[in-house]
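Re: the pair you flagged

First of the two:
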Amino acid sequence: MKTRRDFLKILMAGGAVAALPVASREGRAAPDPDLILRLIAAPDRVPIWRGAQTRVLRFQAQVIQGRSDAVREMSSYLGPVLEFRRGERVRVHFENGLGEPSIVHWHGMLVPDTADGHPRFAVDGGESYTYDFTVRNPAGTYLYHPHPHGSTGKQVYFGLAGLVIVREPSERAVGLPDGENELHLVIQDRRLGDDNQFRFRRMMMDDMSGVLGEHVLVNGKPDPAFRVAPRPYRLRLANVSNARIYKLAWSDKNPMHVIAGDNGLLSRADGVQVRPYVVLAPFERVELYEDFGRRRSRREFALMSQEFSGGDMMGGMMGEGMMDEDMMGGGGMMGGMMGRGMMGGGMGDMMQGMMSGGQGKELLVARFTVSGGGRARADTLRLPGPAPAVGESKHELYTRLAFRHMRGSLNGRTFNMHSVADDEHLPLNEGTVWTFSNDASGMMSMSHPMHIHGVRFRVLERTRGKAPEDLRDGLIDVGFKDTFLIFPGEQVRVLVAPTEPGLFMYHCHNLEHEDGGMMRNCRFG
């Protein structure tokens, strides 16, 4: 078990690229990088609560060459914030110290397929992988996290995730706050044992609902409190939970002003989105423009996740009579579990686990207090002009989402490391309208956060079904995205125009669904 001190020794002693392990695989594209980073994943222990330290998995990073401000360490278990600049050529040497296979995915980033973190590139413990890419994304909030097939959920849950912030000179013209007036909040939920240790999967039902926890951590810390000045702030919010959907709102009923989504700032045509709350599915991000000068000094308020009913699978099963033969039959799941005692603690523990900390429960995310002093005047926001139009779409794809017998599928298929079907090809630099249809038949109807690797896309429309009434006003479907939430019975059409050729992926970003095979390859070009 490596400690934080052990990590620092490794980083200080091994600063040169020559110190990398011999067993190395590469995904190179750019010669002469502007920035070279070393990124290590390994076990660690960190103090999160009083008492025993918590065992985690952790990213540590070091700048080998280039800007020293490209890495900002976090004070808890989360990986450091990596700050890139648009047009910058980046090389990252990833070293796997986990004792099990892993690989890093740059979530939302437009990179070559060899740098995307496909599980076919996963390296064993003690081995390394080199990424090379040019930063092509616009200014925005992105993520990095592991992506080995079958264990992504566990590795993320125990701490392997971090923010990527992309900046570009044109941001300054927007009039956004920066420096101390820019905050990021990485939001996660966790289960906690009496020994201060994270509790991951407890029951088979976790494979259906995804792992949900009753404790919310922000930037890896419990009970976070922010003291802010009476002036405008730029808030970057990222949902890095395995499965939880958040309905984020201010406790004092102030509206939220959304200025950016998953994949960069909104345009002038999109406009600032003023919403009573914002819905964030796993691995979605938004940026808010929040003028704390409009609130009373020294008054505490909170960022909450409000209660909602739309995503609770168990409520739908019980309340709508959906306990069908898939669930209750003699050979069905419930019958089998009750008959064979597969739940460990029995049905009582299973039901308690499903309802405790379940989807849609009200949760405190973070507390805020506005300090005293003079109030700064807000600058006028000047959102950027629209991106160049893709043009008329000449291609269409259709993907049907389903969940049966505790396993998700896409057009009836589950993950295969190398296979690509005929309906999983997209042409380069041309628009494709991709329709996702969430099959609502059977008892296992649930929402799915869908993510497409290697592209940014626009949501065109939601049809057929309806988003739940208590979540509808918080869906941010404007601007460019890389992840979207689709509800039971719904169809969502997105416009995609890949720019990088190769083999990429699309999948449900409920990490337990993804690890269970609700993931497929797609080929661009």
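Second of the two:
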Amino acid sequence: MSEPRVENASTTNGLPVAPSLGPALALTHAPARSTLVDGRVAYICLLSVILAVFAALIAKGLTCLIGLITNLAFFGTWSTALHAPAGNHLGWWVVVIPVTGGIIVGFMARYGSVGIRGHGIPEAMEQVLTNRSRIPARLTFLKPLSAAIAIGTGGPFGAEGPIIATGGALGSLIGQLLSTTPQERKTLLAAGAAAGMSATFGSPVSAVLLAIELLLFEFRPRSFIPVALASTVAAAARFGLGMPFPVFVLPAFRQPSQSAILIYLLLGAIVGVAAVGVTRAVYWIEDMFEHTPIHWMWWPAMGAVAVGVIGYFYPRTLGVGYENISDVLSAHLSRVSLSLAATLCIWKFISWSIALGSGTSGGTLAPLFTIGGALGFVLGAGAIHWFPQCGVEVSVAALVGMAAMFAGASRALLASAVFAFETTLQPLGLLPLLGGCTTAYFVSCLLMRNTLMTEKIVRRGVWVPTEYEADLFGQIRVADVASRNPAVLHADEAVEAVRARLAGHEAAWAHHGFPVVNENGFLIGVLTRRDLADPTLIGPEPVQQLLRRPPVVVYEDLSLREAADHMIKHDVGRLAVIARENPGKLVGMITRSDLLTAQRRRLDEMKMEKSMRGLAASRGNGGK
């Protein structure tokens, strides 16, 4: 904040007083207007860019490690190429491989870190909300290693979840090593997570949206600028590492008709119901494991038995399964059509939900995309069968189902729709995607309180923000609520006279703070009721002798949020309000009670909204 220069200032009780400005602003405590970004944000941006490069390398390395373990376990070959386990010829021995992986993961969880259990995003959310974004350093290598073992031995998971979790853990680690604030550490965690997703799928925009919707719990420039830079750099690094783009190559879509859009909306709603069922099933299975008398270390191996048995009868359920998504989206299953898609949807869901419920390590995005895409394929084929002139395309229906499943299960609405576009580069699919994801999101909100990402941590007593809105205190100016006519004391008044004057006016005594002005009407300090009631004072002293420090003031054009922060910073319950154009002149006073009173606007709006809902419900019931 630039301060006006004060010349020829006199002093009052040791406090400089300028003839034209009152107290010298250099000695008053006035908050500067907050800025959107500053040099510190540039520093975090630099760290985020460096972090993005490492996240891209981690994505590439983990993918190669999964390929290596898969090839060794199912084919006995030394190769890092990502091959589907479905082509194995092991027979019933295929059951042993996932169980072996489950045993190893269980031992790693018990003797390494219990934090490797699960798919990573809920755990990252919990650290953001409860632990100031501090993730233990050992998870930076234990999480990807355990995930590579679980997926490489046939676990029905995607690699993206562990990569996202590892990127977030690396960002948190950097933040801890470099002594950052909790807010900066959260930004680095989100930047690492977004970079991990962007490097995996080449989807930088949806990665940023996912970070905002699931990790940042805010939308501020100082947060999303570093995240966006990290996501961009990670996507660029992906291209440099020779990974394909787009991930899912599809034939060009046709312009959807109005009837097709309506069907895609309905399809999204149906998939939203399925997403609710999928979420509840996963946590029901998890509850079943919680009630078993066997130590949790063995649960991943128990779940892997189901993975292996299902994998024997339907090998497509084993491993990452990105090829399943490609086949569904490109309608390669159309000739054997509904049976293959429906079978893939059912068995992938059963295998994945049991494995995830057992507490092993793996991701949720690819399985949800597979289940949703296959379900969308079936529903789209059914719509074409029953309404041949509707203009529905099976590939578009599968794409909408894929994105709507994730939108309904995670409530990351924008990230889901944009992800499906970025990974296919089909602009004519954007409208069906937005509609289908929105109806899925709507149905999910109606039928389910928590989500696949939040249910676990909510059960632990963690409150997860679900609605982001502009800060009410940030929208109201100090001038709108400040008291304009406070009880003012004059610097040369005797203490005993002030006591007598206030004793005769009970309303004035109700205040806890009284601004003190000099003979020119300029503010020189603030006294509290406790200061004036001090029994050690005889009474003839002028009140200016009681001033111990410059006044803590606030400009009338600042927001209530800035005023509240200023009160906390200086540990005071009231602020003198001044104007920028005449900073020595008292405008009014603002207290903590005034801040609470400002909440009345929000309460009045909520009351009005509740009344309107009640009126609508009454009309819907025929006025009964």
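The mean pLDDT is 85.

-B.
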